[in-house]
Amino acid sequence: MRSLTAPELLGAWEAGHPHSGPGRALALLCAAWPERSPGELARLPVGLRDSLLLAVREQTFGAEVVGLVPCPACGEQVELAFQVSDIRVASGAPVPEVLGVECEGHAVRFRLPDSRDLAALEAGPEGDGPRRVLARCVVEARREGVDVETGELPAAVVRAIEEAMEAADPQARVELSTQCPACAHAWAAAFDIAEFFWREVETWAQRTLREVHTLASLYGWSEEHILVMSPWKRQRYLELAGT
Predict the structure, then answer these.
(1) Helix (H, G, I), strand (E, B) or coil at 26
(2) Can you tell me the distance from the alpha carbon of 114 to that of 117, in angstroms, rounded to the nearest whole number?
(3) pLDDT, tens digit, 9 for 90 and up, residues 98-145
(4) Positive or negative torsion for Cα 61, 65, 66, 68
């Protein structure tokens, strides 16, 4: 695994900017793996996608992750600080493309959710998101040899499918034990590497564009010339320019 270069990061930021979260995550993956098609990357299970994003983020911005999350009890901004390795799930045996569960007389075959499903969820109507994702992922549902619509599956069967999905793709759901220093409220804070990494890239890109603008205005250098400089060297030129 390698880090993304400055031109690659800016290219991913530009490509992902018009899209919602799943499209932005794919833009970052496409920059890191240009040899793989966007369609192939879009079909990766969410947990596998996130494990790849964690690896790219670690190589590009470092192993330490620091962020803020609001306390659900009092609204205080609570700092989260951890290492990428703290939330990385060890890879196990390859997961079959189609999984199955049997529960309450139902036999259901399904695949794991991927970026296409997340994008469809964001583009669809509000409410009952898990059921809509399930409807996209269920390949076949039968009871006593008769086909059953996904919407007709009992709650216990739905829970069994969701638990099987989580067990097969554990990196897709990351929660951090958190306690608010202001009110002592404790909760499990969800961490979304795709959203977090994108915010970091966006902050970096806006700062870098300001640097490029300043140096190009002062010295007449091209964007390409400036971006191939190391951040340390760019900063030295900016200091000499008094900015």
Answers:
(1) helix
(2) 5
(3) 999 999 999 999 999 999 999 998 876 766 777 889 999 999 999 988
(4) positive
Cα 71 to Cα 227: distance, rounded to the nearest angstrom: 39
Instruction: Give start and end residues of each alpha helix (H) in 17-45.
Output: 21-32, 38-42
Q: Which of 95, 101, 2 minimizes the C-alpha distance to 44? A: 95
Q: Note whether 49 and 69 are within 8 A (CB).
A: no
Whole-structure pTM value: 0.91
**62 Cβ partners below 8 Å, 6+ apart?**
none
Contact yes or no for 161/108 (Cβ under 8 A): yes
* Region 13-24 average pLDDT: 95
Residue 236 binned pLDDT confidence (cut-offs 50, 70, 90): very high
Q: Which CB contacts under 8 angstroms, 24+ apart, belong to 26-29?
A: 26/115, 28/4, 28/53, 28/56, 28/194, 28/197, 28/198, 28/201, 29/53, 29/56
Share of the chain above pLDDT 90, in %: 88
CB atoms within 10 A of CB 153: 23
Task: Report the mean per-residue pLDDT for the chain.
Answer: 94
Say if CB 196 and CB 65 are below 8 A apart: yes
Cβ-based neighbours of 11, under 8 Å, separated by 6 or more:
31
CA distance 4 to 39: 21
Share of the chain above pLDDT 70, in %: 98
